[in-house]
């Protein structure tokens, strides 16, 4: 619908030059003075477009601006022209060149138009207060047969929203009188103060609305209105009870009937949220057991209506906004319900990712952390499962909620396969189960769905959520949990649902988080020695997760030392050394029997550096390492290695090997550089020129240069 | 309270990034107090900021709409053939809601409710605690009124030079950004009054 013609129109409006614009302004001024008919309307429409089409200010002639303002107060002038004048002035705002005031307006409608312009000025000259005072004056002096003042009420509402204090400055009795007449509810009869009377009438009105809400509306459009009114009525009752707790008893009896009703009618769940809010705010005072409502909210709603974007957002927001109000029991229920809440996220990831990043810290708990991490990593899998769930449960006549362009008969069959039921059942569970299931069998079966846009969108959100998870969990995790999480990270890096690019992004996050865990708990490497040895024992692990592998090897080099954990023995260091040495051999030393396996150059250098670090701690190993490093000098210089490593990478490796070898010639320096004690890492150590590390490094590099000069080739 | 209402272009999800997301109409209902700014031209900077905030919202709505279209596998907007006089089934149009954090782009946190109809996006920027259900139905009502009254589905028709019609609709159905509870009968009466007093 947006055509080239419209694009060109916008372009013209933007590009109009100053001179031409001023000529046009003169024309508009002339029209405003002489004729207020169709030609004027046309010209004003064009002027509006010119002003609104650009974010930069357009200077209009003063005469023109004055006439636009004056037209707003003309007694006889079509609404169309006045609306356009107001719109133009508003589009120019905020502006210092306006001299508009409420004083000359003749009707409430004109006052409303002028107010719309004045309120758009950003309150630079107390426009809000001036408008509100004028409106109050008009309301106070209203005549029984005078003009309809309804147009002023929205202005009043806006003013109160912009500057709540203005109401305090005025005598409120007249204002409340007007509001009461708008409500036009039956009078309470007794003599009450205006404030009390307003509340009583409001209560009666809401009560009536709630009672009428279970009657069927005659027209479809009215049933939507009914639901909106119900939501609003409950919200107003909530406010009333907060202002005056004496309303609580009557409100509760009114809402009791509503509770039973909700949940029957499919459209009515939206009202569940303000109801839950009410009980959250007042339930304790009323000694009401609202457990059932929260169960409904956290358990039934997400699993039954996860596909409704509005409901999903509202439930998430409810949780987010009310966290400070949740008592420990409710908070516990919320935490246990995380698998269910994740359904909302899995299905509606673009709008809900930011909400969940904010909510996640409250859901993380030491007792469910492991299960939660698995769930986060399997979130795209959950999206696929929800899709299949909808496909298999929705009747054909209903409009499909899933992606009809994707045909997945194989996956659907798998979903219905009784043998796989336990796994799908686990994936779609509503509460944390306390145990974990390996979903690997599902990945293959759900592969056809990995190309589905919704699954891909969910996959894109996961890295962000993982960061949020880890930044919270590290604060509550004890030593044992840290170990579990680290193991999980290692294990899952090789077991992920294959959505395009998902693995790469997740690996990046998991690698950096693994390092963060090690940094937080340096003894991690030692405590997980068995698993880590297994990991570095196989070259296939390099290929499947190179980034992760690099981090693990680096962590071994950093943290496998007595300074990090006193239990570190020479035997252990030697064991790791041997495993790493064997691996390095496999990827760099060519043999006649097999081709060299693919290996990124970073892995080679980190292996070399780690071996050197280990040798600096167990100095018997130094000769072995030095020998190996000298063999590295020929890397890339024979056909076998040059086909696997590019020349620049090979050269970098050779240079590093030389540097490390040089370092090992001075074992105590090597130890200092490669395994610095904690004090050395303090900045102070580096600023003090007498003891500093830079001094040591400078010395070493000078030695290395000399060494290099002595070496042949 | 509604902070702003906007209408903007929606491009199809799979189109190459040709052209821009254009704001076709926007109305900010009463601006928050401008921060004290001693430098000159403060008013102009405020206006610039406002325009950019609205454009930022439009872009986000477009992006959310495109993502939803892709996720639900609906045919792209271009391919949808729409017979001009048939009423658009707005209940089935893509729609959604998302949050705007404080400072991004408005000072206060807000919520955006949006609706996509063919290649037009309609959006309401709300306070964080507004009645979402009411906002949703108001937005649908506004879209329906504008599509009908301006015959926006007829090829060649545009709202660029008919801002007064939009203003007329807003002044009756969302005056000063006030969400109204209107029953069907009342809406029809208002609509009739509007059609009568507004030449097409």
UniProtKB/TrEMBL annotation, chain A:
Signal peptide segment: none
Domain AP-5 complex subunit zeta-1 C-terminal TPR per the UniProt entry, residue ranges: 355-703
AP-5 complex subunit zeta-1 ARM repeats domain sequence ranges: 225-343
AP-5 complex subunit zeta-1 N-terminal TPR domain: residues covered: 1-171
A Pfam family this chain is assigned to: TPR_AP5Z1_C
SUPFAM superfamilies, alphabetized: ARM repeat
Domain of life: Eukaryota
Any one of the GO CC terms: AP-5 adaptor complex
Annotated protein name in UniProt: AP-5 complex subunit zeta-1 isoform X2
Provenance organism: Heterocephalus glaber (Naked mole rat)
Taxonomic path: Eukaryota, Metazoa, Chordata, Craniata, Vertebrata
Automatic annotation (TrEMBL), chain B:
Coiled-coil portions: none
Pfam family, one: AP-5_subunit_s1
Superkingdom field: Eukaryota
GO terms, biological process: double-strand break repair via homologous recombination; endosomal transport
Entry GO terms, CC: AP-type membrane coat adaptor complex; cytosol; late endosome; lysosome
Protein name: AP-5 complex subunit sigma-1
Origin species: Heterocephalus glaber
Gene name as annotated: Ap5s1
């Amino acid at each position: 619908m947006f055509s080239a013609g419209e694009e060109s129109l916008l372009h013209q409006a933007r590009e109009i030059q100053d001179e031409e614009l001023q000529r046009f302004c003169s024309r508009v001024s002339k029209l405003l003075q002489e004729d207020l008919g169709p030609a004027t309307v046309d010209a004003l429409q064009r002027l509006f477009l010119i002003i609104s089409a650009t974010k930069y200010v357009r200077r209009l002639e003063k005469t023109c601006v004055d006439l636009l303002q004056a037209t707003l107060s003309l007694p006889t002038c079509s609404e169309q022209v006045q609306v356009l004048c107001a719109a133009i002035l508003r589009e120019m705002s905020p502006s210092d060149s306006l001299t508009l005031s409420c004083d000359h307006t003749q009707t409430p409608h004109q006052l409303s138009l002028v107010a719309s312009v004045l309120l758009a000025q950003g309150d630079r000259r107390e426009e809000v207060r001036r408008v509100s005072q004028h409106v109050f004056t008009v309301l106070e002096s209203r005549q029984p047969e005078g003009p309809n003042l309804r147009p002023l009420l929205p202005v009043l509402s806006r003013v109160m929203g912009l500057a709540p204090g203005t109401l305090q400055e005025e005598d409120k009795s007249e204002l409340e009188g007007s509001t009461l007449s708008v409500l036009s509810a039956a009078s309470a009869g007794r003599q009450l103060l205006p404030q009390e009377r307003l509340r009583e009438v409001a209560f009666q009105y809401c009560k009536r609305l709630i009672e009428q809400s279970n009657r069927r509306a005659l027209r479809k459009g009215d049933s939507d209105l009914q639901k909106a009114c119900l939501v609003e009525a409950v919200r107003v009752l909530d406010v009333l009870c907060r202002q005056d707790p004496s309303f609580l008893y009557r409100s509760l009896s009114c809402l009791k009937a509503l509770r039973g009703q909700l949940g029957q009618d499919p459209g009515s769940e939206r009202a569940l949220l303000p109801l839950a809010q009410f009980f959250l705010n007042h339930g304790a005072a009323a000694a009401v057991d609202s457990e059932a409502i929260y169960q409904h909210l956290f358990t039934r709603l997400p699993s039954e209506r996860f596909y409704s974007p509005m409901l999903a957002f509202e439930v998430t927001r409810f949780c987010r906004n009310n966290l400070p109000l949740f008592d420990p029991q409710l908070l516990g229920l919320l935490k246990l319900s995380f698998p269910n809440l994740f359904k909302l996220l899995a299905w509606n990831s673009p709008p809900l990712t930011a909400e969940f990043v904010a909510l996640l810290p409250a859901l993380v708990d030491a007792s469910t952390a492991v299960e939660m991490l698995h769930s986060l990593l399997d979130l795209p899998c959950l999206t696929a499962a929800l899709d299949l769930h909808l496909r298999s449960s929705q009747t054909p006549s209903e409009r499909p909620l899933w992606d009809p362009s994707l045909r997945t008969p194989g996956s659907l069959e798998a979903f219905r396969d009784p043998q796989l039921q336990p796994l799908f059942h686990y994936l779609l569970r509503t509460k944390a189960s306390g145990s974990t299931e390996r979903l690997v069998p599902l990945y293959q079966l759900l592969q056809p769905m990995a190309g589905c846009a919704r699954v891909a969108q969910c996959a894109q959100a996961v890295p962000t959520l993982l960061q949020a998870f880890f930044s919270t969990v590290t604060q509550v995790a004890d030593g044992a949990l840290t170990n579990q999480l680290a193991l999980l990270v290692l294990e899952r890096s090789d077991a992920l649902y294959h959505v395009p690019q998902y693995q790469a992004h997740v690996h990046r996050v998991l690698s950096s988080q693994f390092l963060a865990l090690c940094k937080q708990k340096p003894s991690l490497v030692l405590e997980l020695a068995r698993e880590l040895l297994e990991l570095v024992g196989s070259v296939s692990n390099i290929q499947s997760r190179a980034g992760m592998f690099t981090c693990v090897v680096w962590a071994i080099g950093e943290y496998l030392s007595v300074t990090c954990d006193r239990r570190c023995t020479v035997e252990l260091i030697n064991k790791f050394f041997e495993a790493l040495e064997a691996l390095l051999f496999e990827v760099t030393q060519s043999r006649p029997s097999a081709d060299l396996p693919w290996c990124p150059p970073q892995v080679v250098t980190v292996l070399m550096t780690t071996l050197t670090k280990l040798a600096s701690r167990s100095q018997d190993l130094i000769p072995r390492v030095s020998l190996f490093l000298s063999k590295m000098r020929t890397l890339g210089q024979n056909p076998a290695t040059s086909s696997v490593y590019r020349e620049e990478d090979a050269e970098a490796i050779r240079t590093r090997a030389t540097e490390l070898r040089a370092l090992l010639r001075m074992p105590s320096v090597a130890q200092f550089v490669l395994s610095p004690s904690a004090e050395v890492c303090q900045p102070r150590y580096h600023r003090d020129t007498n003891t500093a590390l830079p001094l040591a490094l400078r010395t070493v590099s000078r030695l290395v240069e000399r060494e290099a000069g002595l070496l042949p080739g | 309270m509604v902070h702003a209402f906007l209408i903007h272009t929606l491009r199809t999800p799979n189109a190459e990034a040709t052209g821009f997301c254009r704001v076709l109409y926007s109305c900010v209902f009463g601006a928050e107090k401008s921060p004290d700014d001693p430098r000159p031209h403060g008013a102009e900077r405020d206006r610039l900021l406002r325009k950019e905030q609205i454009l930022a919202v439009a872009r986000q709505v477009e992006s959310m709409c495109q993502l939803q279209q892709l996720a639900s596998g609906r045919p792209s907007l271009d391919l949808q053939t729409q017979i001009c006089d048939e009423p658009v089934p707005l209940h089935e149009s893509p729609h959604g809601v998302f949050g705007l954090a404080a400072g991004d782009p408005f000072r206060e946190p807000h919520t955006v409710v949006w609706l996509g109809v063919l290649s037009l996006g309609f959006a309401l920027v709300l306070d964080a605690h507004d009645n979402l259900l009411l906002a949703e139905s108001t937005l649908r009502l506004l879209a329906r009124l504008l599509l009908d009254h301006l015959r926006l589905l007829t090829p060649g028709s545009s709202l660029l030079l008919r801002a007064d019609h939009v203003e007329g609709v807003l002044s009756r159905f969302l005056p000063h950004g006030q969400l109204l509870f209107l029953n069907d009968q009342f809406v029809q009466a208002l609509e009739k009054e509007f059609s009568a007093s507004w030449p097409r």
